[in-house]
């Protein structure tokens, strides 16, 4: 694909939970090769947006298009298979499994039906292929030397990297990162920023949610700012830092 082409398009996306409108008429585009930040105060609707984009949740209204096709209504594994992978705000890792096995869980949609199949064992050829891809993903994030350790021995920073490796194991075109730098120390945050830049150079397109404004502002090309489920503003980090509505939303938190 061409750099700059629209890869992901969110239009009029709305999600209601009973009387609460968690996401309200959100529209934005993610272009190939960019790092787009999605920011907003706690409860603004960022994680719900991720869940709608990855089809974990069905929208009340609106649509998500990926590479020109509607993904709304497709099951999450089908969306993953098309090249859209995500990390979770609260990583779902298996402490008793090795780092490599945890990373290999990210490849399950490429092979068979689901996470149960992944845990109970792949067909033999698939298992090999899956472990090779998982190892490659660990190399990309710098965790390959820990491949055969149990995940419960990892530091917070290493767990965050493993969560990214698991998402990378399916070789996605788009990576959705939900607060990937939460709990990291300053030095780890700098390494994390360098990793994201490296992945983008390798052709990955990134949608990033994080609360560390210094990290986000230094990393993203553009920002979409959410407030109470709605899109408040959109633009470059510099434009957003000088936007009156954005400043008010953050000061009023
Ligand atoms: P953010 O990630 O920006 O902090 P969320 O998307 O997690 O925000 O939440 C947006 C709003 O939707 C919050 O008010 C939250 O309590 C509510 N919410 C999120 N998920 C659910 C759910 N499954 N059921 C009911 N309310 C939810
Ligand atoms: Mg969230």
UniProtKB/TrEMBL annotation:
Domain ABC transporter: 8-253
Ranges in coiled-coil conformation: none
Subcellular location: Cell membrane
Designated name of the protein: ABC transporter related protein
Source organism: Allomeiothermus silvanus (strain ATCC 700542 / DSM 9946 / NBRC 106475 / NCIMB 13440 / VI-R2)
Entire-sequence positions represented here: 334 to 586 of 589
């Amino acid at each position: 694909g061409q750099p700059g082409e629209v890869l992901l398009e969110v239009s009029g996306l709305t999600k209601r939970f009973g009387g609460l409108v968690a996401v309200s008429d959100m529209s934005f585009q993610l272009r190939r090769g960019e790092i787009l930040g999605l920011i907003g105060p706690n409860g603004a609707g960022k994680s719900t947006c991720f869940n709608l984009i990855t089809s974990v949740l069905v929208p009340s209204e609106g649509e998500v298009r990926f590479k020109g096709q509607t993904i709304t209504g497709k099951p999450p594994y089908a969306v993953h298979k098309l090249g859209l992978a995500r990390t979770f705000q609260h990583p779902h890792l298996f402490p008793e499994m090795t780092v490599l096995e945890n990373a290999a869980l990210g490849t399950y949609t490429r092979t068979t039906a689901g996470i149960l199949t992944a845990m109970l064992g792949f067909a033999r050829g698939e298992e090999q292929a899956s472990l090779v891809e998982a190892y490659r993903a660990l190399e990309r994030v710098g965790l390959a030397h820990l491949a055969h350790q149990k995940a419960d021995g990892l530091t917070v920073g290493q767990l965050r990297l493993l969560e990214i490796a698991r998402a990378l194991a399916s070789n996605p075109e788009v990576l959705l990162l939900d607060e990937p730098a939460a709990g990291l120390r300053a030095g780890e945050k700098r390494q994390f920023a360098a990793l994201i830049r490296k992945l983008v150079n390798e052709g990955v397109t990134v949608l990033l949610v994080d609360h560390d404004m210094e990290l986000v502002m230094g990393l993203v090309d553009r920002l979409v700012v959410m407030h109470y489920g709605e899109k408040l503003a959109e633009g470059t980090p510099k434009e957003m830092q000088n936007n009156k509505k954005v400043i008010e939303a953050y000061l009023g938190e």
